[in-house]
Amino acid sequence: MKNQLFTETIDGEESWGRICQQLDIFKPLIKHILTQESLPTGDISNTKPSANAVYKVGNLIVKIFAPKESRHNSESVYKTELFGHARALSLGVSVPKIYASGIIKDKYEFPYIISEFIDGVELKEIFNSMSSDEKYAIGQKLRKISDKLNAACEPFNEFDCIGSAEGDYVGWLIDLGFGEKYLNERKEHIFSLGLNKDDLVFCHGDFDLCNVLYGINGEAYLLDFADSILAPACIEHMTIALSANYDESFIRGYFGEISIDELVEICFNGFMLSINGAWLLANSTELKLSDGRAFATLDSLADFKTQLHEYVKKKFESYH
Question: Contact, 115 vs 98, CB < 8 A?
Answer without folding.
Answer: yes
